Amino acid sequence: MLNNIYKLFFSRLYALQGRSSRKEYIARLLLTTIVFLIGGYTVDSVPNTGLFSFVYIFSLLFCMIIMFFQYIPLAVRRLHDLNESGWYVLITFLPFGQLLILWLMFKKGTPTTNKYGEPPIN
């Protein structure tokens, strides 16, 4: 079980090559969302004085930056699973581009080998 969790959350964090399944995409997107929500709600409850608040806010910000930058390669691999170019991930930075996220979540990937590789096995 730990091996499956490791493969799902920690393998190929920043790899742009290959494909990612819907399961991997949704699991990592939910984890990122939970980290951002917890960080947003708890940062207000930390007192603004002392070294603890500085370390807490700095570590939270560092974690959020890592989680944000791991999303981009994940979305590229998910687009590869749909047999689309990874450059379409830039659409998410445009207004209404977040609808692409819904498309990535629910559209089934190419069941056979495409130009980006073998189908993901999860």
From TrEMBL:
Residue ranges spanning the membrane: these are: 25-43, 55-74, 86-106
Say if the entry is tagged with keyword Transmembrane. yes
The entry's keywords: Membrane, Transmembrane, Transmembrane helix
* Cited Pfam families: DUF805
User: Is the keyword Membrane in the record?
Assistant: yes
Sorted alphabetically, which InterPro entries does this protein's record hold? DUF805
Name listed for the protein in its UniProt record? DUF805 domain-containing protein
Which organism does this sequence originate in?
A: Candidatus Megaera venefica
